[in-house]
Amino acid sequence: MMTDSKRRSGWKIASALLGGVLALSACSGGGEEKDAAAGTSKTSQAQIDEAAAKEVSKARIAISPKNGTTNASINNAAKVTVTDGTLSEVTMTTADGTAVAGTLAADGKSWKPDAQLERSTTYKISATAKDADGLEAHENASFTTVSPANSFIGNFTPEDGSTVGVGMPVSINFNKAITDRKAVQSKITVTSSSGQEVVGHWFNSQRLDFRPEQYWAEGSTVTMKLELDGVEGADGVYGVQQKTVTFKIGRNQVSTVDAASKIMTVTQDGKTIKTIPISAGSSENPTYNGQMVISEKFKETRMNGATVGFTDDDGKGEYDIKDVPHAMRLSTSGTFIHGNYWGPDSVFGSANTSHGCVGLNDVKGAGDAKQPAAWFYNSSIIGDVVIVKNSKDTTIKPDNGLNGWNMDWAQWKAGSAV
């Protein structure tokens, strides 16, 4: 005879065994088996999956860049697309919640931001789409755009939409050293409506100029395309620019300064339109020889000798003229062609007296349009050529200003990376 304690123990064992049998019955068996307690048909896993699938949208959303991307492009990276459905809502914000405007395509298949993104910024995109049955799909992603430290830009001249002289090269100065010159140059194209061959030349790791063999054809249109977005110019440093620049070539004006005769001859389209007496660099400070391009124009500007190495024993500039009239830059090192009101009229055409610049007779204040310097200033545009000959100095270096014309065509082409 069992005691109460043994009886209770036996019931516990039986209950456990029974529970195991019931649990085993509930988790096994075919779809057509009957539940012993309920007497109903059981549902197969395939049927469950099929039913669940009917509740999932067929729309498939793709967001680029991929979630977690760093160094993303600020131009083309951000985009949302969908297949087997249409986008119903897309929001893009910065990390602090600032909304980014964007446009949904008319067919509802894609979305992109309206403007260039900011560098070093984290963006979040949330997208919703619906399939033909109205079922919604959702997708989210976050990415960070390339930082200034990991990107480069090229500052270029001339400006988009400008009209320039026949000597104006396309000059690009990169803000970081470029080690993969071929990769960068291959994504920059410069063409002319004249059909002239245009070739790039690297002066150093940060400067790339483009020009044809001869001066640009007057009246032509030059187009530069920068497709540098995402181009790796140096290890871990990517381009961010994507733009097209066009500029017009004006009339063909070339002025020749003869330092020996002290006369400048101005021609347009090969015909002489004016001769002007000048005063070039003295024998102690002669003017560079060579082909020089006007790169800047100032109705009045200050010229201090200390900025270009002309100092006295006290370290002060040998000259400091605060209002030089009608000044036009010919070199980076400080060569100008400009008006001169402080010298006597008698020096122009008879004596070379400057520190290396080319001086033309003028008045203080640049207010007399009849003065030779005023006429030349008003008749000149950025990109016009000024040639100096018969000076006692050397020929100007091709990279001293926009003066690559002082390099022959074979040398120029040798500096191309493509």
From TrEMBL:
Domain L,D-TPase catalytic stretches: 253-389
GO biological process, one term: peptidoglycan-protein cross-linking
Keywords: Acyltransferase, Cell membrane, Cell shape, Cell wall biogenesis/degradation, Lipoprotein, Membrane, Palmitate, Peptidoglycan synthesis, Signal, Transferase
One GO CC term on file: extracellular region
Residues forming the catalytic site: H338, C357
Record keyword Heme present: no
Pfam families documented for this protein: Big_10 (PF17964), YkuD (PF03734)
PROSITE patterns according to UniProt: LD_TPASE (PS52029), PROKAR_LIPOPROTEIN (PS51257)
UniProt pathway: Glycan biosynthesis; Cell wall biogenesis; peptidoglycan biosynthesis
Molecular functions per Gene Ontology: acyltransferase activity; peptidoglycan L,D-transpeptidase activity
Name of the featured protein: Lipoprotein
Organism: Streptomyces pristinaespiralis (strain ATCC 25486 / DSM 40338 / CBS 914.69 / JCM 4507 / KCC S-0507 / NBRC 13074 / NRRL 2958 / 5647)
